[in-house]
Amino acid sequence: MKSPKQARRKRALKLEQLERRELMAVDIAGFLASGPMPTYSIDGTGNNISQLEWGSTNEKLIRLANSEYGDGISTPNGADRPSPREISNVLADQGDQDIISDRNLSAFVYAWGQFIDHDLGLTETGTTEPMAISVPTGDPYFDPTGTGTKAIRTVRSLFDPATGTSTSNPREQINSLTSWIDGSMIYGSDTKTATALRTMQGGKLKLASDGMLPLNNATNFPDGTVEIANIQRLPDDQMFATGDVRGNENIELTALHTVFVREHNRIATRLASQNPALTDQELYLKARAMVVGEIQAITFNEWLPAVLGPNAMARYTGYNPRVNPGLSNEFSTAAFRFGHSLLGDDIEFLDNNGVEISDPVSLSEAFFNPAIFKTESIDSVFKYLASDPASELDSKIVGSVRNFLFGAPGQGGLDLASLNIQRGRDHGLADYNDVRAAIGLPKVRSFADITRNKETQAKLQTLYGSVDKIDLWVGVLAEDHAPGSSVGPTAQRIIADQFSRLRAGDRFWYQNQFSGRLLREIDSTKLSDVLKRNTELTNLQSNVFVFDSRIEGSVFSDLNRDARRDPREAGLAGWTVELVNSDNEVVSTQVTNRTGNYRFDVQSGVRTGRLEIRVTKDPSGVALATAVARQVDITRGNQLARVDLPIARPARPTPTPASTGSVSQATPPIQPIDQSPFDVFAQVGDQRRRIGR
User: Fold this and answer.
1) For 284-299, how does the pLDDT look when each residue is reduced to its tens digit (9 = 90+)?
2) Which residues pair with 325 in a beta bridge?
3) Confidence label for 685 from pLDDT (cuts 50, 70 and 90)
4) Which residue, 592, 662, 591, 588, is CA-closest to 627?
5) Which entry of 118, 257, 340, 427 is annotated as an active-site residue?
6) Could you give the C-alpha distances from 355 to 165, 359, 635, in angstroms and in order?
7) Right CATH number for 59-177+321-356+383-502 from 1.10.10.350, 3.30.200.20, 2.40.290.10, 1.10.640.10?
């Protein structure tokens, strides 16, 4: 005879099997039919039928390695390590350097990373446990007068009050959000917020008449405004209302919030036209399910391969109810903060063709400042994100977040690098080497095992003295990248583990929920598709997470002086070729190889806008009286422009009619048309001819 517990498990299993069959049947016809649809609850409960709380709000973070508190119970660790600000000053100070991604990742990588991060987790700080980060005497930003008494003041994270009572029950922090990739940053993680953001008509979310998010005021929210974070640069009623309190944190993030609310409303309108019998609630849930599916597909099909490399994530093998999707402390507090190294120090505004239309703003000016959208469009921000290379993932961080995070030093300003290090100590994260061992990687035995960069090795040695004392976030950023990846092996494994569990443990995952043509539609959605459908942008590369454009060609002996390279006209070696930007600044110089060829790419300064390629010196180093020049318009990523530059030579015994011997800067610009993969075009005067792929 079965026990009551066994009977409950059997009933739960039958219900789960029944609901899974129902989920797998959702194709176009079923999706458009009226009736309830199994999908995510707002607070994340009930996804796993036998573990109802898994993935829901206010669940404890899980750990991949045992905690290492100072007292083994709850006090921050790191008492035998340098101050986080000292580590930041030594390792993270990027200064005025522009260090771009060696894999040509675009700025969209960090923007999407933050957008997804705000879907997955939020560990809030309390009010009763202050935590000071000591500042080195004479710190140029936080202690310029050398008092030796300054500190960066913050507060410890909230934790489960049932923990932190003994070494066998150490302190555990809480995730305030659902851990599922369920669009909670758009829809909210609590019923009050989710309800407030809806129009209750046609399944739509609230948008202003200009297509922007609703301002968080009493007019738009007569039953009560939504909770938002604010540093009071602007009053609360001039901030946008979003599903996550951090939606106004910077204008790039706000732009993504905006475009996905537009996408939700676009889908709701489409569904209503296909089945007018659908109710507001049915339209809302169905549109929400499709938007969440698109976010999941973009994250796994585009973003994760861009960051981790193409083979870091295993193939999806279906729902596994035994997998706990909860966020790991190592992921949320250290590894997933890798994106802070990718940030640039300013934000530009570009038109559809990649031309700057307004002066840039510093990243520090863009914090909690949605008023920028009174003059700038989200389109111009998206075009910038798709067209600017991300910073390289390394130990360096730009000054806007290292010295001016959310304000000026001494006036509320913080250091993000210091905060990341201190937050790891607050959470009792195990050190870098112990975490490596816990996730199945070998412990490093020397600083040279972490990185080949001797300068970084020396700094780590000076700061920590031992490889067994390194803070996890510091070690994650210092590592040499895994092959084909933009992160080191420790971050790669922690991040892959987290996203694998989020997918495998999710009963409503899009590949488990949809089938047939509807599944194919969602699975093939790219972020560029969502942007084009909901903005006026038309000129984006297919994969906006990579900006990889280049200009190449040859300097050749123009025997017949027609500015056209014929098969008998040889390339010229040793000639100096310059890449000049729209401000007439030389950004890169090369010398043609033995066949006369040259190449400029993203690493050597190719960006969107009108660029000039010019030959300025002959092989002996003598400057040309008149530079031989061509102009070229790079308008988006994934473009290749071929520019051959003629050097006039004496005619053959039976010459063809001569033309101009040099080409001035007034030559009409080349406007390459890019396909995928690269199409190559040769420019001949005003003509264009395809010469290969």
Assistant:
1) 999 999 999 999 999 9
2) none
3) very low
4) 662
5) 118
6) 59, 11, 8
7) 1.10.640.10
Domain ranges of the chain: 59-177+321-356+383-502, 550-692
- The per-residue pLDDT for range 28-66, each reduced to its tens digit, is 888 888 887 889 999 999 999 999 999 999 999 999 999
Least confident range from 125-129, 455-459, 576-580, 646-650: namely 646-650
Residue 649: band (very low, low, confident or very high) from pLDDT cuts 50, 70, 90: low
- Sole residue written with tokens 């250290």: 334
Residue 361 bridge partners (DSSP): 347
Q: State the alpha helices, DSSP H only, in 524-627.
A: 527-534
Amino acid 408: pLDDT: 55
pLDDT of 184-227, one tens digit each? 999 999 999 999 999 999 999 999 999 999 999 999 999 999 99
List, in sequence order, every beta strand (DSSP E) within 337-441. 346-350, 356-362
493: helix, strand or coil:
helix
Q: Where are the alpha helices (DSSP H) in 191-279?
A: 191-196, 251-274
Pairing verdict, β 680-684 and 645-648: unpaired
> What is the 3-state composition of the chain as percent helix, strand, coil, each rounded to the nearest 5?
35, 15, 50
The topology (CATH level 3) of 550-692 is: Immunoglobulin-like (2.60.40)
Assign residue 216 a region: left if phi > 0, alpha if psi is -120 to 50, beta otherwise?
beta
pLDDT tier, 409 (very low <50, low <70, confident <90, very high otherwise): low
Residue 613 is given by DSSP the state E
118 is catalytic: yes
Confidence at 97, pLDDT banded by 50, 70, 90: confident
For residues 197 and 225, give the distance between their C-alpha atoms in angstroms, rounded to a whole number: 10
- 């008492």: which residue's tokens? 79
Give the pLDDT band of residue 689 (cuts 50, 70, 90): very low
Peptide bond into 672 cis (omega under 30): no
Is residue 161 exposed (0-12), middle (13-18) or buried (19+ Cβ within 10 Å)? exposed
Structure tokens at 75: 């006090």
CB 517 within 8 A of CB 27: yes
- Cβ atoms within 10 Å of 277's Cβ, excluding its own: 9
Give CA–CA dist 18/229, Å, rounded: 42
Which residues lie across from 578 on neighbouring strands?
A: 589, 614
CA-based torsion, 185, 190, 195, 196: positive or negative:
negative
SS3 call for 378:
helix
Distances (CA, A) of 387 to 166, 353, 616, 678: 52, 10, 28, 16
CB 353 within 8 A of CB 539: yes
Tokens 């405004």 belong to which residue? Answer: 225
Name the β-bridge partners of 397.
93
Strands 640-642 and 645-648: unpaired
Torsion of CA 142, 145, 149, 151, to 10 degrees: -10
Read off the pLDDT band of 693 (50, 70, 90).
very low
pLDDT at residue 678 is higher than 60 = no
How far apart CA 297 and CA 286 sit, in angstroms, is 17
Sign of CA dihedral 482, 485, 491, 492: negative
What is the pLDDT, as a whole number, of residue 292? 98
